[in-house]
Amino acid sequence: MDLLWANRAESAEAAVTARHLKPLWHLPGTHLGVVAWPAIRRAPHWHYWWQAHLLDCLVDAQLRDPQPERVTRIKRQIRTHRLRNVGRWVNAYYDDMAWLALAIQRAAGVTGVDRRRALGTLTRQLTDSWMPEAGGGIPWRKERNDAEPPFFNAPANGPAGIFLAREPDWLARAQQMGDWIEATLIDPETHLVIDGIKGGSLVRAEYTYCQGVVLGLETELALRTGAQDSARHSARVRRLVAAVSSHMAPGGVLKGAGGGDGGLFGGITARYLALVATALPGESAADVEARETAGALVLSSAKSAWDHRQSVDGLPLFGAFWDRIAEVPRADGAVATSVAGAVNESEVPERDLSVQLGGWMLMEAAHTVTVARQAR
User: Fold this and answer.
1) Segment 27-49 mean pLDDT
2) 221: buried, middle or exposed (CB in 10 Å: 19+, 13-18, 0-12)?
3) Is 0.90 surpassed by the pTM of this model?
4) Dist CA 49 CA 357 (whole Å)
């Protein structure tokens, strides 16, 4: 049994719980993740998609170590998310809604909580926004200006596709989304996933989490489609794992992206590399190599992140870059704020909830990979 990574994941959970999990507006029976630690009197934003990943991490922890009190936390996180979002599940960003849909879907499967209405609402948002006639894909957000062309990107289509692949009625749409990404957003030289396309022009930035969500989508499709389709989806996974290993993990450690939204990027990539390592079907030498490479990237990144952590009151504080010593944040300086639909980092990135969630996700991914290896 894996105790090393289980204990490290437990410590990461305890750190986020102690520093960030607080009641909303002092209301009993509520909690969300405070976006900065040390906290300020009033956080300027609550960052919808960060809260979705907090929920996902709680589900990871429940899978690792089932506890009745954590089920209560999971239910409370879902309920408070809706309360803070003015009694609604939706917002203006399709990537945000995809992350929440994924987290609630997993929470329902693990805890039995009935959130069919929430999932139905979010499913309609993610399916009704499919726009092949405009070059998509689903767009990143609901456009406020009809004259502005929609931005179709991997960060929206990837998690939405993973969610829909896990919904039997929408598997065909998920496959269409994977095929759209393959046809539109793969760099022919590096084989990495680029960010997106807008008005026919490619946005060629290459982020770790774009790779992660496409690995997750293609792995789910390899698992859930017939033999011929499964083979082509598996081939895409193998190619992308190799590309990530070559271009996104110097020294075997996944690249960091700072704080703010970037604090989640590496953790998301690790989550779906772990899915590849534990779930990619096939017994060919290429399939085995892809699983082994994906697992090795998770474990080497996790070891580096743990070795470079700080310890504060006996609990880990992870760095924004897993190959550098973490910096302990102060109670002053600028905190993460939203600008044009994205969240910039705090003056000290380690202050951001996103960075600590990324570290927690990584520890849970390392535990998952190790348990699977020990079970072979």
Assistant:
1) 88
2) buried
3) yes
4) 12
The reply to whether omega before 137 is within 30° of 0 (cis) is yes
Q: Which residues of 245-256 are buried (b: 16+ CB within 10 A; e: fewer)?
A: bebbbeeebbbb
150-192: pLDDT as tens digits: 999 999 999 999 999 999 999 999 999 999 999 999 999 999 9
Judged against a pLDDT cut of 70, whether residue 42 lies above it is answered with no
Using CA atoms, how far residue 198 sits from 82, 135, 136, 140, 141, in Å, is 31, 9, 9, 10, 12
Domains of the chain, start order:
4-375 (1.50.10.20)
pLDDT value at position 230? Answer: 97
Task: Report the pLDDT averaged over residues 69-89.
Answer: 97
Q: Is omega for the bond preceding 28 within 30 degrees of 0, making it cis?
A: no
**Angle, vertex CA 333, rays to CA 332 and CA 336, nearest 5:** 115
Burial 141-150 (b: 16+ CB within 10 A, else e): beeeeeeebb
